[in-house]
Design a protein that fits this description.
By secondary structure, the protein is an alpha/beta fold. The chain has helices at about 15-30, 45-50, 65-70, 90-95, 110-125, 125-135, 160-175, 185-190, 200-205, 225-230, 250-255, 295-315, and strands spanning about 1-10, 30-40, 55-60, 75-80, 100, 155, 175-180, 195, 210, 235-240, 260-265, 285. It has two domains: about 1-105 and about 295-325, Rossmann fold (3-Layer(aba) Sandwich), CATH 3.40.50; about 110-285, Rossmann fold. Helix 1 (about 15-30) packs parallel to helix 12 (about 295-315) and helix 5 crosses helix 7. The longest helix has 19 residues, at about 295-315. The protein starts with a strand and ends in a 16-residue tail after the last helix.
Length: about 325
């Protein structure tokens, strides 16, 4: 029977019982033996130390850089808990023949629901009212003006599955929805009943901007001083995608100087932000701890799918979530 070593580089739930149960069933079905070894890596050195002899990695936030990949002696597959793989050097892995796997299609409703919740908290000023009520200020007038949702334009940056689900939900509430992606996708926009606009136009006309773009070099700090200066002073920005798409220093200055009215985010530039982050001191800033993906149902899928794909890869099969498909021909 084939025997392999799987390192879980990091995870932020209490145990790996779901992964172990999934692996045990897969082992019995496919005549394979995989030793699952948990770790809690934070740095490149941590990963290299525990994973250099691994056949497979299951990763959450730990950096899987070119340096890490060059030190992997036997690795065949790296799977990530999630959709985005911006903490993995996919190019370096592909060059070395290592399959990269993600978990697509597991939390579209959860993230779009979370984004919509943050949007509504912003436009209805829920957290502002709540914080003032707790200070003993019972006065509806401190939050004025508040516009009717039917007067507002929601601008989506990115138009993938999550953004399209959000568009449907927001339109039902009365928002006018526009979107920007570099590719025009005219038929897709027409099908969804959403107007495509150029990026600068979206910045100028949107009352709320919701970010749904992947993090890559072209989108890193996509929102900086220039972009915030173009936005309406009454507008809000919401981010449930990747923290580094927004330049946090520029966001802080925009909020402090009332260049925009508020921001609500589920992600920050650091996955484990400093509690003294100056954004946390602002009353027009809302943050949740990267929880948009979560429901009980989505969490089970998130933890089972990559394990099954790792077993497929180790058995010489094509993983369902394979990203670097160019390896198939090899």
């Amino acid at each position: 029977m084939d025997r392999y070593k799987l390192i879980v580089t990091d995870y932020n739930w209490g145990n790996l019982e779901i992964e172990k149960s999934t692996l045990s069933q897969a082992e019995a079905e496919r005549q394979i033996k995989v030793e699952l070894i948990p770790a809690q890596c934070r740095t490149e050195e941590d990963v290299i130390r525990v994973a250099s002899q691994a056949d497979a990695l299951l990763n959450q936030y730990a950096p899987i850089s070119e340096k890490v990949i060059s030190n992997l002696k036997k690795c065949r597959v790296i799977a990530r808990y999630g959709i985005g793989v911006d903490n993995i050097d996919v190019k370096a892995a592909t060059k070395k023949g290592i399959m990269i796997v993600n978990v697509p299609f597991y939390c579209e409703d959860e993230v779009s629901d979370h984004a919509l919740s943050l949007i509504l908290c912003c436009v209805r000023k829920i957290f502002y009212y709540d914080s003032n009520v707790k200070k003993g200020i019972w006065d509806w007038k401190i939050g004025i003006p508040i516009k009717s949702i039917g007067e507002l334009t929601l601008g989506l940056v990115g138009f993938g599955k999550i953004a399209r689900k959000l568009a449907k939900k927001a339109k039902c509430l009365g928002f006018k929805v526009v979107a920007f992606t570099p590719r025009k996708h005219e038929e897709l926009y027409k099908k969804e009943g959403v107007e495509r606009v150029e990026f600068d136009t979206l910045l100028k006309i949107s009352d709320v901007i919701s970010i749904h773009a992947p993090l890559k070099e072209s989108t890193r700090h996509m929102f900086g001083k220039k972009e915030f200066d173009l936005m309406k002073p009454t507008s809000f920005i919401v981010n449930t995608s990747r923290g580094a798409i927004i330049d946090e220093r520029a966001l802080y200055n925009a909020l402090l100087n009332k260049k925009i009215q508020g921001a609500a985010v589920d992600v920050l530039e650091s996955e484990f932000p400093d509690k003294n982050n100056p954004l946390f001191k602002l009353d027009n800033f809302i943050a949740t701890p990267h929880t948009a993906f979560y429901s009980e149902k989505s969490l089970v899928r998130l933890r089972t799918k990559p394990v099954l794909d790792i077993v497929r890869a180790l058995k010489g099969e094509i993983p369902e979530g394979l990203l670097n498909k160019e390896l198939i021909t090899k």
